[in-house]
């Protein structure tokens, strides 16, 4: 890939264009269990904004209008599985996992939202939460409950298949005939919208 660099030379000042921070990460090497310390490790996470912290051994976001995903600092293969537990500490549940993204931008890949839009609907969308062809199911979810998530992306020939399980039951499934894959679509993140949420027990594995 050719990297184009634009140089502005004016009064001895040189300004170069570069890839945004967070666009690259080490490749996932086998099953990865994230071990949390007292802070978010720069080896495991890419923090590009928001109020992501570690409190009492869990990750917490404090409820802002958050378009700043917390990116996991690994490049994932096209076929993978991630499991984690998430809890909403507010009535508007709205917690999200973004996957097959670019490591920088919100809505750069797929996004799975539990209890979005005032805890009324859950969706799997592609590059736009409001996508017309998104997969969705209506229903409310509990606050202060640790939901156990398992999300898989596999392939059936050239088609990508996404399966999202919550508390051991299949919640939503989506088949994409033109799946997002490869460089620029190989990162995972967590996100939320105006909700106080917590995360723990994050495990990522290749398929």
Task: Summarize this structure as a short list of keywords or feature phrases.
207 residues; mainly beta; Jelly Rolls; eight-stranded antiparallel β-sheet; seven-stranded antiparallel β-sheet; 1 helix; 17 strands; globular
TL;DR?
By secondary structure, the protein is mainly beta.
Structural account:
With 207 residues, the chain is mainly β. The protein has a single domain, classed as Jelly Rolls, CATH 2.60.120. 2% of the residues lie in helices and 47% in strands. It has one helix and 17 strands. The strands form three sheets. Strands 3, 5, 6, 8, 13, 14, 15 and 17 form an eight-stranded antiparallel sheet that branches. The longest helix is centred in the middle third of the chain and has 4 residues. It is globular and about 45 Å long. The N terminus is likely disordered.
Rg value: 18 Å
Distance between the terminal alpha carbons, to the nearest Å? 28 Å
Instruction: Please state roughly what percent of the residues sit in beta strands, choosing from under 5%, 5-15%, 15-25%, 25-35%, 35-45% or over 45%.
Output: over 45%
CATH structural architecture = Sandwich
Sequence stretches where pLDDT stays below 50 over 5 or more residues: 1-22
Mean pLDDT: 88
Q: What fraction, in percent, of the residue positions are helical?
A: under 10%
